[in-house]
Design brief:
This protein has 9 helices and 18 strands. By secondary structure, the protein is an alpha+beta fold. The chain folds into 2 domains: 111 residues, Probable inorganic polyphosphate/atp-NAD kinase, domain 1 (Rossmann fold, 3-Layer(aba) Sandwich); 156 residues, Tumour Suppressor Smad4. Strands 6-5-18-15-8-9 form a 6-stranded antiparallel β-sheet. A 6-stranded antiparallel β-sheet has the order 14-13-10-7-16-17. A hairpin with a 2-residue loop joins strand 16 and strand 17. Helix 1 crosses helix 5, helix 2 packs parallel to helix 3 and helix 6 packs across helix 8. The radius of gyration is 19 Å and the shape is globular. This is Lipid kinase. It comes from Dulcicalothrix desertica PCC 7102. InterPro entries: ATP-NAD_kinase_N, Diacylglycerol/lipid_kinase, Diacylglycerol_kinase_cat_dom, Lipid_Phosphate_FormReg, NAD/diacylglycerol_kinase_sf, YegS/DAGK_C. GO terms for molecular function: ATP binding; ATP-dependent diacylglycerol kinase activity; metal ion binding.
Amino acid sequence: MNQRALLLVNHHSRQGSQGLPEAIGYLEKLGFELIKESWERPHQMVDVIHQYKHKVDLVIVGGGDGTLNTAVDGLVETQLRLGILPLGTANDLARTLGIPTSLPEACKVIAAGNTRRIDLGWVNDKYFFNVASLGLSVKITQNLTKQAKRRWGVFAYAVAAIKVILKSRPFTAEIRVNNKSYQGKTVQIAVGNGRYYGGGMAVAHDATIDDQKLDMYSLEVKHWWEIILILPAMRSGHHVNWRQVRAISGQEIEVITRKPRPINTDGEITTYTPARFRVIPKALEVFVPK
């Protein structure tokens, strides 16, 4: 018996419009009965998932991390299994889960039926898959245009990062975790549920998306050029070993700043400080490679 799948593809993602016909062809050959739906506004995506809660066996989402973040509330509330087609720019969740960027191979992963229950991060009533952060990453997000991402792909992140780093200014933040409080000046605080974010940077070298904890780092540098020195280590997650980086793990973390600062969750600005973060263990069932 064929599995019925709700197929949701972001036509505005980097490969969404051109990848949709190809994805439909592969999935139908693999035996899926597809229900194809679209949405205009983010909240409508959650409504669509609810609409098909009792009519499908799984939801297949095609797009990048922002698209997956838009769908996450509907997935948690319905507990439908999630298949991922990495059609975005960074595809950091797919990278964390080892899902191939090749569309035929990603479809085969879903068809193979191997699943894994993953944790989710939560901040101020908003779920996230990868990382929630404030400081440099927010300004990088604000400097990234859809046109740049579509044209340059993941390299657009690097260009935006360099522009932001040159103008970076530290801010004061208080971090509360594991019954301890830390206060100091920082240019970036990142709280990770998964491993990768920002086009392939790692929040910590040993982070996993099902370890039932959050990995946090605070980039406490005094000069912008120190960030440039640390950047290579951020690709592997070994920046946590640098003396300018405060690294802490925990199940609940609180961040307080003197004035409200925007927070980026999976590449989208969704909330502000003061912020309470926590991990939601085994929140979703996702199709992954064996």
